[in-house]
Amino acid sequence: MKIVFFGTAGAIQSKDNANVSFSVVEKKLSILVDSSGNPVQYLKRVGIDPKKLDILILTHSHTDHIYAVPSLIHNLWLMKRKKPLNIISNQFTINKAKELCNVFSLFSKESLFLISWVSADDREINVSPMIKIQLFPVLHSIPTSGVKIITSTSSLVYSSDTSPSKEVISRARGVKALIHEASGTLNLEEKLNKTGHSSGRQAGEVAKKARVEFLFLCHFDFREGSVQDKVKLEVKNSFQGKVIVPELFRFYEV
Length: 254
Description:
Blueprint: E1 2-9, E2 18-19, E3 21-26, E4 29-33, H1 39-45, E5 55-57, H2 63-66, H3 69-78, E6 85-89, H4 91-103, E7 115-119, E8 124-128, E9 131-137, E10 145-150, E11 155-158, H5 166-172, E12 177-181, H6 189-194, H7 200-210, E13 214-218, H8 228-236, E14 242-244, E15 251-253
Parallel strand pairs: 1-2, 4-5, 5-6, 6-7, 11-12, 12-13, 13-14
Antiparallel strand pairs: 1-3, 1-15, 3-4, 8-9, 9-10, 10-11
Helix pairs in contact: 5-7, 7-8
């Protein structure tokens, strides 16, 4: 399984970093998690054919996670995509994403490729005999899903936006990699938790309790400046595994 990040910023992008989104590639199957920035060009940049993208997973309907869904669909239509696209999310987010697409009348486009909306509020989807996707609820300000992807070679959990969650710990036990938000440093924990977010220290505690091998950090708040090094240092105080602040457009194998 390979992971490639297109952005690791929280709600506000920096000049060099887009909102959190990433792809998971397992052999010939490709998954995009959340849709922000310029998804078609991001995919092309790392060698993933957008017209062959298999699955889009949407974790929740906050702006920074779904605003590029209409752009993605419109671009794929203009590129004459024929392959159906599966969009997996919780029902609340599906409804919001459809409303957003309806603003641009996307579903009335002539010869639009088939879009299958798969509601998975808290259940497992068998993508193929070798790949399973689980969505599960986390602790955020609106209905939000964490994501678990299990393949024949590896497994990962993505926390999405959440305050420290026992559900994330439970689902991440036994997986190889955890992608967890780390929206700020220890001094901001109380404020972060009230808005459904976690500090780097708390992300490290979750990883430690889940006993994962890799911890990828994301959802940095760049209003606090270049916070990645500070957050990573606080993580290492509690988690002794491999801590990765992802380099954008680089593939990581787990």
